[in-house]
Amino acid sequence: MSGLLARYERLVASGELRPDADQRRAAERLDRLQRDLQAESPGGLLSQLFGNRRTQPQGVYLWGGVGRGKSMLMDLFHETLAIDDKRRVHFHAFMQEVHARMRSWREADPGDPIPRVARDIAREVRCLAFDEMVVNNSADAMIMSRLFGALIEDEGVAVVTTSNRPPDDLYKDGLNREHFLPFIALVKERLDVFPLDGPVDYRLDRLGGIDNWHTPLGEKATAQVREAFFRLTDYKPEDAAHVPAAELDVGGKRTIHVPKSLKGVAVFSFKRLCGEARGAPDYLAIARTYHTVIVVGIPRIGPDMRNEAARFVTLIDALYEYRVKLFVTAEAPPQELYETGDGAFEFERTVSRLMEMQSAEYMALGHGEEA
To answer: CA 20 to CA 72: how far, in whole Å?
Structure first.
């Protein structure tokens, strides 16, 4: 198996990837980490000279807008890392496991569970690779500084992660964020931070012309947004039943259940998103966290659905403000969704935004980027 850098160079030479200075620098750094980890693995050069002693390697934090190649580099790193004790895992799934391990330790012993959980994880892996580090609930934020401090500094686990946000923007405006700040300091000290902001948005290439708005409701429309989800997340259709869910924190007061949440893409039904009592804070939390939102089952909104219409307007305003990409299945095109009823005139602004959100210019904008 060739190393990461050799594989990356072949992809560029073949035209599958375009030359990108940011990607190249990140690939070189990941390749160096890869060689360090392999050298000290059983049978490696350092292991032969000094025994199986763990060092404290400097990890890597890749961040940037969607479609800039972060997950691609992560995949290459993990695939070509020639050690057995490695793991690539979605960040939400990992944190759910951590909470389960903590509960088990508390039941067995009333002592502090975090060092024990870190020790258990370190016995299993030498390198943890996370795709999409995003912190959106206070339960995770409260333990991350101590957990990762123990993993990296005490146990010598190498951490490689991707994120849509720079370290300083993680858990931004979150409840009791002051408890999370030591984690940010740890990331900046113990991981090399690489921004990826190259000129190519591979996400748009992967979409291959799939439209944003699919009507009428039915199997064909559902198949189209499902395909968009798989292309955006690189998830395999045969694993559809195992796409993780998430609980999104809203100002520490409540959470929103996200039925499908992966790599910055969220899937909701219209009924759950706009048919239940929700307000601007809920929709802003979604817009800040996800670069792409898929809403399925949007009906024609009749005069008896003015609450649903008002919530839908608020949702679209929030998504538009943060330049979130929107894919939907709907009973009708935007201009025919809500033709009569209270607020139908004001709904015309929402129709205008929905039309703009389908444009190539809007789709090319980065998450949170000004138009």
So the answer is: 13
